[in-house]
Amino acid sequence: MTFQKRKNQLLLKNIRQQKQFDEELIKTQQEIQEETLKNVGRELHDNVGQLLAFATMQMNSVSRNATEDLKPKVDNASDALKVSLAEVRALSKSLNSDVMQNMGFKATVENEINRLNKSGLIEATLNIEGENLTLENKKDEIILFRILQEFFSNTLKYAEAETLKVELNYTPKALQIKVADDGIGFDLKGVEQGSGMTNMKKRAELLNAEFNLKSEPDNGTVLTLSYPYRNA
Question: Domain check: are 147 and 221 in the same one?
Fold first, then answer.
C-alpha cells in the first residue's frame, strides 16, 4: 500500500509537471507569435502604408493635370489606392498587439468586422449585449482576439460561407462569445485535428475559458466561448 501510494504521488507529480511544461510551452509560442505579428503590423503601417499614402498623393496630382479621357481611369486608380491604404491600416491594427491593447477588445473586434466587410468576401455582423466592460487582463484580450481571428480565417478559407455573425455578451461574471457562419460545415468526428483547431483550444485553456465548437455538414459552424473575468 505504501509503495502504491508513493507510485500514485509520483504519477500525479509527473502529470502536474507535464501540464506546467505544456502551459509554459504554449505561452512561449504565443509570445513569439505575438512579437512576429507585431513586427509585421509595424512594417505594414510604417513601410507599406507610407508607400501607398505617397502613391495616393502622386495619383491625386496626376488626376488634377489629366486629360478628360484619362481622368476617370486615374480617379479609379486613386480610389483603389485609398481602399488599399485603409485595408493595410486596418490589418496592421489587427496584427499589432500594442495597438490592440490601446484600442481594447471591443474596438479591435469591430475593426476586424469592418475589415472583413470591406474585403467583400463575406457579410459579417457584430452584436454586443450587456455593459461593455474593459477587461483588466490585456494579455487575455489579445488571446481571445487571436481565437476569433483563427475562426474567421478558417471560415474564409474552407467554409464557403456567405455570412458570419459575432455576438459578445458581457455578463456579470463572464464574457460570453458566440461566432457562427453559414458555411458547408464539417464532421467534427471525422475531421483531422489541424493546427487551427488545436491553437484555438490551447489558447482557451490558457484563459480557463470554456471552449465549444459545433459543426455539421451543410449546417455551418458555431464557436462558443465563456471567458471568466480575471485580474491583470
Answer: yes
222 and 185 belong to one structural domain:
yes
Residue 32 is predicted with a pLDDT of: 62
pLDDT tens for each residue of 180-218: 999 999 888 766 555 678 888 888 988 889 999 999 899
Does one domain contain both 131 and 83?
no
Identify the CATH number of the domain in which residue 127 sits. Answer: 3.30.565.10
**Residues 49 and 133 grouped into a single domain:** no
Domain-embedded: residue 42: yes
Q: Please give the pLDDT value at position 160.
A: 92
Total tally of structural domains belonging to the chain: 2
Write phi, then psi, for 209 (nearest 5 degrees).
-95, 145
Least Cα distance to 105 among 54, 70, 132, 141 occurs for: 141
Q: CA-CA-CA-CA torsion for 195, 199, 200, 205, nearest 10 degrees?
A: 140
Cα–Cα separations (whole angstroms), residue 182 to 81, 101, 114, 124: 32, 31, 19, 11
**Same domain flag for 7 and 63:** yes
In a domain, 75, yes or no: yes
Distance from first CA to last CA of the chain, Å, rounded? 44
Task: Give residues with Cβ within 8 angstroms of 93, minimum separation 6.
Answer: 41, 99, 100, 103, 108, 111
Residue pLDDT, tens place only, 41-59: 667 667 777 777 778 888 8
Among candidate residues 163, 168, 183, 178, the one with its CA nearest the CA of residue 116: 163
